[in-house]
Amino acid sequence: MIIWLTGISGAGKTTIAKSIYDLLKPKFNSLIYIDGDVVREIFGNDLGFNEEDRKIQIQRIQKISLLLYSQNLNVIVAALYSEKNLLKWNRENFSNYFEVYINTPMSIVEKRDNKSLYKNAKKGKINNVVGIDIPWNAPENSDLIVSSHNKQPNVIAKEIIRSIPKFSDIITS
Question: What is the pTM of this model?
């Protein structure tokens, strides 16, 4: 099973993915969590943030996920960049795939702005920020769309788990 969370920076992907992992790991030892920022670090931060490098980054995550998936591991992915062909690749290559779009308004993520991305992009200090000077391409065929601006991450994680047939009976409250 691949659970793929996508959304703009600050939407809550990492926090929600970690909550899903924490809820499922006690029952599924074969569970792996992959975060886009960690994958960047593993590869020595050798990519920039322009659209082409973002595509390469997602392709790396896809290939790692496919390797783990082929070994019967369940994988939770938190990845920012959303592009139609990349998400189509996921559906074509993962037979047990569940895509979650964390749809959080720009006004909310700009307030969170943990990495000061939006603030610095608006001041012209940085570029290649998805949602500012790189268009955000919202997924078109997500299995579930949730918003993180009015619920706690743990509540959203439970909602996601309940929506996945393989895991739906695990969370009762």
Answer: 0.94
